[in-house]
Amino acid sequence: MPVDFTLPPDVEEVRLRVRKFMDTNVRPEEERLESNGADRGEYVRTIVGLREKAKGEGLWNPHLPPEWDGMGLGPTAMAFVSAEAGRTGIGPFVINAQAPDEGNMHTLLHWATPEQKEQYLRPLAEGRARSCFAMTEPEVAGSDPTLIQTKAVKDGDDWVVNGHKWFISGAKGANFAILIACTDEDADPPQARNSAFMVDLPAEGWEVVRDIDTMAGRGNHCEIRITDLHVGGDKMLGGRGEGHLLGQYRLGPARLAHCMRWIGNAEVALEMLMNRALKRFAHGSMLADKQGIQWMMSESAMELYAAKLMVLHAAYKIENKLPFRQEVSMAKYHVANTLWRIVDRAIQVHGALGYSTDTPLERMMRHARSARLVDGADEVHLQTIARNMIATYKEHGSTKLATGDLL
Ligand SMILES: Cc1cc2nc3c(=O)[nH]c(=O)nc-3n(C[C@H](O)[C@H](O)[C@H](O)COP(=O)(O)OP(=O)(O)OC[C@H]3O[C@@H](n4cnc5c(N)ncnc54)[C@H](O)[C@@H]3O)c2cc1C
């Protein structure tokens, strides 16, 4: 019977070290920054200081192999590390496993030439550079990258790019972008229309128009205008027409990495719900004694438990080079919605306090809303899941392969 839910001792050891580091070093600093209303500069200085501590304790680049200054953890061990780091807002930055850099590091590791790796992956891995991934455009549906309008046209050995992007996370201050542009608009299949390019930043022709105001404030999700941007022929990442493939490849582990951090957030919200329910008295008993509140606890517990199992199973599939798309889509949809519901229930149990800005819950809720949009909107994942269900059932007369291929 090969199913074994015990954590290997080395993974448990890393998980506990990350938890301790976050509890003793990161959370107190984050609480200090929040209570002081610190500005961006102070956040950055604090993160830089904490990064040195993390490096000193060997908690740096958990997702990268040792030759890239990493801890060499596979996706399953990473699930635990990211969930621990995700219990704080700045934790992932402190260990250099923050979006979008983490996904970009995976992408470069897999797709870049040795020269490109030295030029782009090395500084990211050393924490000397930041990056962004530029795909979505305001004019066309981001859910369907075959519609991308940003065009790269050959100019001798080089390329000239014109277009418009938005919601490009981390664009302000990034040292380079991975840019997805259409190079072959008549390609068949349409998925072969796009290619990926490395763009050194800042660059003439790459204008950061604005840091978009979102319901969670300005989070460095930028609008970019691209005008006659010159990109060298050696800056293509992967092959011509492989931009879509690269995006898909990137999104597997990147989606899961988001899920792992969201599980950490959901855990914090659920602990706050429990804490409040056990301390608040109304109508003759504590809130925790009321059936209506207990159902919130139970539903949250079951959803969180299912979320963890789904993420671990998807990570296991990636780690063992098994088909993982269905499992990642199911995990991404489930975790994003679980986070949303648990934060909402925690707010409900806190009453007016939950609606105030005196607890982190309102901030968590504003951030949680984007989880149902980024890395594929809910409906796109539901569509993928259903498509796999139909294909599997038609071929095998069973849904087993499309429901985790477990029992
Ligand atoms: C905080 C944040 C950070 C982001 N960071 C980045 C980044 O770094 N780089 C980047 O390139 N992009 C980024 N994005 C963009 C994100 O990837 C897109 O928002 C996402 O792909 C959806 O594209 P869209 O916004 O154009 O929505 P659309 O594609 O226009 O979809 C709108 C809605 O239509 C519905 N819909 C779409 N397709 C279907 C379907 N097949 N069936 C049923 N309903 C459907 C869904 O409800 C969907 O929410 C970010 C977005 C946010 C909110």
How would you describe what is shown here?
By secondary structure, this protein is of the alpha+beta class. The chain has three domains: 9-98, Orthogonal Bundle (Butyryl-Coa Dehydrogenase, subunit A, domain 1), CATH 1.10.540; 131-237, Butyryl-CoA Dehydrogenase, subunit A, domain 2 (Beta Barrel); 248-402, Butyryl-CoA Dehydrogenase, subunit A, domain 3 (Up-down Bundle). Helix content is 51%, strand content 16%. It has twelve helices and ten strands. The chain has helices at residues 9-36, 40-56, 75-85, 91-94, 101-111, 114-125, 243-279, 291-319, 325-350, 352-355, 361-371, 378-396, and strands at residues 131-134, 151-155, 158-169, 176-182, 194-200, 206-214, 217-231, 236-237, 281-282, 285-286. A four-stranded mixed sheet has the order 1-4-5-8. The protein has a four-stranded antiparallel sheet with strand order 2-3-7-6, with no helix packed on it. Bound molecules: flavin-adenine dinucleotide (FAD). Residues 100, 132-136, 141-143, 167-169, 221, 370, 373-374, 377, 379-380, 383 line the site of flavin-adenine dinucleotide.
Please summarize what this structure is.
With 407 residues, the chain is α+β, with helices and mostly antiparallel strands. It contains 12 helices and 10 strands.
Task: List its salient traits.
single chain; 407 residues; alpha+beta; Butyryl-Coa Dehydrogenase, subunit A, domain 1; Butyryl-CoA Dehydrogenase, subunit A, domain 2; 3 domains; four-stranded mixed beta sheet; four-stranded antiparallel beta sheet; 12 helices; binds flavin-adenine dinucleotide
